[in-house]
Specification:
Number of strands: 9
Order of helices and strands: HHHHHHEHHEHHHEEHHEHEHEHEE
Oligomer: single chain
Shape: elongated
Largest sheet: 7 strands, mixed
């Protein structure tokens, strides 16, 4: 009976870890573990039902095993599945007297072997010694003289007002003006240090451009960049100052601050990784993403946090998937996961036209929802930073700088708010001030300490998706070339 159960359970548990490995930790490892446990219970239930119908647990288990083996074709190499099914046939021919017993034993051995291989990358990454990605100009030890709460909101993929107007037919001035009316100082054109989220935000949360070339392996680099966001220079300053750390769930594992308490966590409903198991229906992922995003934008979410607090809110919007209309209703999608730029365009029925319209709809939704949430922020001294990590991706080629519109991708915006007496960000509007997002916390900490913290010069870099350890400097003239 033992072998009759091990086979189907171990084989079906392969799928979640295969997805985890394919996306290299984009989803937290616990999501793969949970999905495997849930699928294992489904397999056991199926074995029980078929065993009851066949009056034999060996026959019922074998039937479920063969069904699962066929389904694995959607998750692992087709050749492996064919070899597995072929091996079943060979084992069945060797000893026809004990066919079911032998097949179940073989399925158990193969299942455990394949599952061990599928699980190994996730297990290995959990035991890796994470390191801070260095930056030559990273912030050092800073003693804060004032400790207002800090709310950091990232609108993933939000572009400059001229780009959004000219390419996306989207009037972001309505949103930016609404921020100004609420007391924000808005920098309408800021440069970002990198064209990808992880190195860009690791740089912002270091106060200096991180050195992506310090790692040789792209997967190690991405995991260490996430670690830098959670444990780097900015986090160290705030932790030493006694801040309470909180965050929203973004749906992208690397971005979810590992040292912060999630204030919108829920164990109910599908996770992003579980949604990816529905290979033929991308709308399932879209629904899960919509739920996560809307939960993050709930008004009053920050009301019961002990001050001073640091709240990191990374919103994967207006970044793909474009699964929301402006009114918050669900929008059908054809892309998978969080694919962007040249990775997403081939999956859109009308290519760039669908990207632009989907982006515009999602931008309208997140702007309106964020303004409602801002209006419900708790009382008390606070500084609010709202920024884009990089611009949109309708003209982004993930593997070619020459085919990427740098003006679209490497420019975004920043907005600062303070209700703390004698702390103002009006000086950032000076035309002589550098406008790189890497200076965001330099500007904030400069106003909270007795020490002078100078701004760094604007400098942006392009990295490919497949080789993010190799950075190419982008010049100011290249940032001014129109998108074609």
């Amino acid at each position: 009976m033992f072998f009759a159960l091990i086979g189907p359970v171990s084989l079906i548990a392969i799928a979640p870890f295969t997805i985890w490995t394919y996306y290299n930790g984009m989803y937290p490892a616990w999501q793969a573990v949970r999905a495997s446990l849930l699928l294992g219970m489904v397999a056991l239930l199926a074995v029980g039902l078929l065993s009851y119908a066949a009056r034999s647990i060996s026959k019922g288990s074998l039937a479920v095993t063969l069904i699962i083996s066929g389904l694995l074709i959607f998750y692992i190499n087709v050749a492996v599945v064919c070899m597995l099914i072929g091996a079943f046939g060979l084992v069945a021919c060797i000893d026809r007297i004990h066919t079911y017993r032998n097949l179940n034993i073989f399925a158990s051995i193969m299942g455990v072997t394949l599952f061990s291989g599928a699980m190994w990358p996730a297990l290995q990454s959990s035991f890796e010694n994470r390191q801070i990605v260095p930056s030559e100009n990273a912030l050092g030890r800073i003693e804060l003289l004032q400790k207002p709460s800090i709310i950091h909101v990232v609108l993933d993929g939000y572009g400059t007002s001229d780009i959004l107007s000219n390419i996306y037919n989207h009037d972001s001035e309505r949103f930016l003006t609404a921020l100004e009316q609420r007391g924000f100082v808005v920098i309408r054109r800021a440069t970002t240090p990198y064209n990808q989220t992880l190195p860009a935000m690791a740089s912002v949360l270091s106060g200096g451009v991180v050195d992506v070339g310090s790692r040789e392996n792209q997967h190690v680099l991405r995991r260490d960049l996430g670690h830098t966001m959670s444990n780097g220079p900015v986090a160290s300053v705030l932790r030493d100052a006694g801040y309470t750390f909180t965050r929203n769930n973004s749906g992208y594992g690397h971005l979810d601050h590992s040292q912060a308490t999630s204030i919108d966590a829920s164990w109910f409903g599908l996770t992003e990784l579980e949604a990816m198991l529905f290979k033929g229906n991308p709308d399932v992922f879209g629904q899960v993403h919509n739920t996560t995003l809307k939960a993050s934008l709930e008004p009053g979410l920050l009301n019961n946090i002990e001050a001073p607090f640091f709240h990191y809110q990374h919103l994967l919007a207006p970044h793909p998937p474009f699964s929301l209309n402006a009114d918050g209703s669900a929008r059908p999608i054809t892309t998978r996961s969080y694919l962007d730029g040249s990775h997403a365009l081939p999956l859109l029925r009308n290519g760039r036209a669908d990207y632009i319209e989907g982006y515009r709809q999602k931008a309208l939704f997140v702007e309106n929802a964020l303004l409602r949430q801002i209006d419900a922020y708790p009382e008390g001294p606070k500084i609010v930073l709202i920024q884009g990590d990089h611009g949109p991706g309708a003209f982004l080629n993930q593997d070619s700088a020459g085919h990427t519109c740098m003006a679209e991708r490497l420019q975004t915006f920043m907005a600062f708010y303070s209700n703390v007496p004698n702390i103002s960000f009006d000086g950032l509007l000076d035309a002589e001030q550098p406008r790189s997002t890497v200076n965001a916390y330099r500007a904030i900490f400069d106003r909270l300490t007795a020490d002078e913290i100078p701004s760094l010069a604007d400098q942006s870099y392009y990295v490919t998706w497949t080789e993010p350890t190799k950075a190419m400097a982008v010049t100011s003239p290249e940032l001014m070339v129109e998108c074609e």
